[in-house]
């Protein structure tokens, strides 16, 4: 798909906006450019500097590529961080997938790389990037941590009791008069006759 030199010449001839649009339109070209930027190679980082992302998706993808390049070329990546590529996005561990090992390994490598940056002009950006890395590490690990999942597990709504069919009331028969047996008196057989 081309080397950094070819992409830079395309930017020079056709303009950065056209090449930026092509990143969104041509998946293979976009993947090639992002892989190049992720390598941390100085010419590919020059490509990132010349490009202006044409969409939010392209901006996020370039931020991920720059984050991948940060441990390899911290000076050059920090020089690109600013208005076009916000520090919170590049240094915020923007990777889509991540387990706790990936997050901690990347964090440790990036922090070690930032410690190598000695240029006074980059000290404020370096410190801001370090703070963003620390904050992102804590947030990502909190999301990955199983105790966080258990603590924030959605609670099922309470079960409603099942309704049972209600039988219609049975008509009550009218009460029968109670007959009380009358004492029977024997006939008087003694006659006065």
Shape: rod-shaped
Strand content: under 5%
> How many structurally independent domains?
2
- The topology string of helices and strands comes to HHHHHHHHHH
The count of helical stretches stands at: 10
Q: How many whole angstroms does the radius of gyration measure?
A: 41 Å
Helix content class: 55-70%
By secondary-structure content and strand pairing, the structural class works out as mainly alpha
Which consecutive residue ranges, at least 5 long each, have pLDDT under 50? none
Q: Largest beta sheet, briefly?
A: none
Overall pLDDT: 84
Q: How many beta strands in the DSSP annotation?
A: 0
- Terminal residue distance: 148 Å
List its salient traits.
2 domains, single chain, mainly alpha, about 60% helix
Describe, in plain words, how this protein is organized in 3D:
By secondary structure, the protein is mainly α. It is built from ten helices and no strands. It has two domains: 1-69, no CATH class; 71-154. Helix 8 (100-115) packs antiparallel against helix 9 (123-144). The longest helix is centred in the last third of the chain and has 22 residues, at 123-144. The chain is rod-shaped and about 150 Å long. 24% of the residues are buried. The model has no long low-confidence stretch (mean pLDDT 84).
């Amino acid at each position: 798909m081309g080397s950094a030199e070819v992409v830079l010449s395309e930017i020079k001839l056709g303009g950065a906006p056209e090449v930026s649009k092509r990143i969104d339109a041509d998946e293979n070209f976009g993947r090639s450019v992002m892989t190049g930027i992720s390598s941390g190679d100085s010419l590919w980082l020059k490509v990132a500097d010349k490009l202006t992302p044409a969409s939010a998706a392209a901006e996020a993808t370039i931020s991920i590529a720059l984050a991948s390049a940060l441990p390899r070329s911290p000076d050059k990546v920090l020089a690109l961080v600013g208005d076009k590529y916000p520090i919170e996005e590049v240094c915020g561990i923007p990777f889509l997938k991540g387990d706790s090992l990936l997050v901690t390994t990347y964090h440790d490598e990036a922090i070690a790389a930032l410690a190598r940056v000695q240029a006074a002009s980059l000290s404020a950006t370096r410190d801001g990037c370090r703070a963003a890395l620390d904050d992102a590490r804590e947030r990502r690990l909190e999301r990955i941590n199983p105790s966080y999942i258990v603590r924030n597990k959605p609670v099922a709504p309470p079960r409603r009791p099942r309704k049972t069919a209600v039988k219609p009331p049975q008509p009550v028969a009218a009460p029968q008069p109670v007959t009380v047996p009358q004492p029977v008196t024997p006939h008087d057989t003694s006659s006065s006759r």
